[in-house]
């Protein structure tokens, strides 16, 4: 695995040892970032179920100012910290060893995020509920995007509160990604 683009382009990052996580492949990561915007001018990223931290590290490399990484597995937290040290991004990051529900409750009172990545183990997906919580607690900036990676058999709703699906991407018979953003911006324009 590597950083695909930006200021840390080409730097290698480690996967979490064992089979408890499923890292997003470089090919999927590159395609995803081509869709959501190849580069960013600031903003914060939130990498939930972070695993190796690859998505949040990619966002930092491409211009996000700060990233928060959340995972509850000890091996994942160790790997994220190693990858942040390797890519020299530790000073722009926070790593939380917490359950995602607990972390969302704690982060709800902070400044909203521009990018929120949700990549749970497919067997434990509660994506619609987590997206609803993020929307209800105004955790996403007006121009932000929520990126949900999920099993291809999972069908997420077109609308969750004020959030609407802007794109559905299918990468294989196993992996799909659904992207949400606020729809009220167009209505109020």
UniProtKB/TrEMBL annotation:
Keyword flag Methyltransferase: yes
Listed CDD domains: AdoMet_MTases
Pfam families for the chain: Cons_hypoth95
Keywords, sorted A to Z: Methyltransferase, Transferase
PANTHER family in the record: METHYLTRANSFERASE (PTHR43542:SF1)
Full protein name: 16S rRNA (Guanine(966)-N(2))-methyltransferase RsmD
Organism for this UniProt entry: Exiguobacterium undae
């Amino acid at each position: 695995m590597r950083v695909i683009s930006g200021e840390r382009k080409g730097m290698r990052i480690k996967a979490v040892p064992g089979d408890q996580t499923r890292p997003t492949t470089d090919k999927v990561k590159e395609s995803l970032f081509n869709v959501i915007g190849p580069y960013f001018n600031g903003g914060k990223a939130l990498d939930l179920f972070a695993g190796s931290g690859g998505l949040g590290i990619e966002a930092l490399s491409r211009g996000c100012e700060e990233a928060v990484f959340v995972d509850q597995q000890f091996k994942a937290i160790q790997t994220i910290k190693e990858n942040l040290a390797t890519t020299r991004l530790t000073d722009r990051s926070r790593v939380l060893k917490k359950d995602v529900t607990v972390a969302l409750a704690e982060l709800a009172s902070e400044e909203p995020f521009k990018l929120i990545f949700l990549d749970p183990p497919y067997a434990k997906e509660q994506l619609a509920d987590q997206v609803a919580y993020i929307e209800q607690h105004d955790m996403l900036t007006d121009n932000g995007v929520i990126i949900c990676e999920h099993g291809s058999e999972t069908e997420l709703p077109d609308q969750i509160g004020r959030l609407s699906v802007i794109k559905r991407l299918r990468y294989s018979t196993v992996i799909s990604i659904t992207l949400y953003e606020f729809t009220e911006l167009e209505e109020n324009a």
